Model the fold of this input.
Amino acid sequence: MTVQFPKGFEWGVATASYQIEGAVHEGGRGESIWDRFSHIEGNIQNGDTGDIACDHYHLYKDDVALMKELGVKTYRFSISWPRIFPNGTGDVNEEGVQFYRNLLEALHEAGIEPAVTLFHWDLPQKLQDKGGWLNRETADAFATYAKTCYERFGDLVPRWITHNEPFVHAFLGHYFGEMAPGMKDLRATLQVSHHLLLSHGMAVKVHRELGLQSEIGITYSTSSVYPANKHVKDKEAAELYDGMLNKWFFDPVLLGSYPEDIKSRYEEAFPLDFIQDGDLDTISQRIDFCGINYYFRTIIAYDNTVPFWNGREVQKEHAERTAMGWEVYPDGLRQRLLECKERYGNLPLYITENGCAADDVVNEGKVDDSFRISYLDRHFKAMQEAIEQDGVNLKGYYLWSFLDNFEWAYGYDKRFGIVYVDYETLQRVKKDSFYWYQQVVKENGLPS
Ligand SMILES: OC[C@@H]1[C@@H](O)[C@H](O)[C@@H](O)c2[nH]c(CCc3ccccc3)c[n+]21
Done:
């Protein structure tokens, strides 16, 4: 018995601009915060940068041809804001517009539907110089950038995603400090996260005002959060961590309010006075779908040395892990999808990212990545159970990632692609998982 998906389920692949494009000084592109951050000694493993990456900027036609061979219905990628507005605002860079029109036309020719992410962390440096997302005016700049993209590309884009993972950009970029712009300040982090969500709402509003036929949503990083054991302290800590990681970002958009339990703890330390009247109405504009990026589950133990959410991540002994050290836990995906349905109702969901890093090597022109095939197979089974048994309104899946690419602070060591990239020659090599996924797409299901 094969594992069958509903008719019309959309199979896709995903990438992001800074991670694959390269050509950072070409086509009129302005500097982004990731150009600045990756060129600071010590920030990125092996001193890697996105200067060349997969050189997708020059090789996009070959990459689209590979996607066509793969047979996917849809392709999620991000537009680099500093290619459209080199200074963040002001004059539009026509060369940048032309690059994305060329890409969109190649996808259209190939019969592949684009899902375009407006912001996947590569903020124009000029805006960062004026405070970045700490500055409420960056939300206005984002709405102008979004409007320009709708106007220039709207005829070729059926699906828009405002933001990729506001939690990661806010917390890893402004609290934990391991991502651009490399800050370590919780109050700043919460102000950034609010302005990210506000800009999302403003961009949705503009989309509706233009009366576009396309659909629009937002993509969240997410994880199902489990208490380390049955103690009430661990359960409370898991609740607060879930509030910090998930509810803080999902609730304002889908319920129109911040979660009280974690909000009151933050307010004990500082006023959340960056939240202005009317902001939550703007943020909670109706959206057409929600994107879910799931990779692993999270286990939390009570730890009162951790401020605000009093919990720290603990690792399950002897768990199966990917090359990122992330636990392979497919049931956590089903759990998280069900939680979303139960808390937010049954709005359409897409898995906008899922996949795994593995230590892939090329051997006589082939890459045996059976571990990745096993990871994907088990997550597809969990998705299918969520649809068939839990009634989750899951409409599609974007595999992270189409190509091996620049894995942020980890550089190029971590390979997530179903297509291997030789960074010396930029040659692409189809991994075994490429052929396996090609079959899944063709059959709309798994051989059991
Ligand atoms: O790490 C693999 C990919 C990145 O290459 C993508 O650019 C980014 O969108 C992305 N997000 C995640 C998950 C991040 C996460 C952090 C903390 C909690 C839950 C999820 C994994 N990935």
Q: What stands out?
A: Residues 88 and 152 are 16 Å apart (CA to CA). The two ends are 6 Å apart (CA to CA).
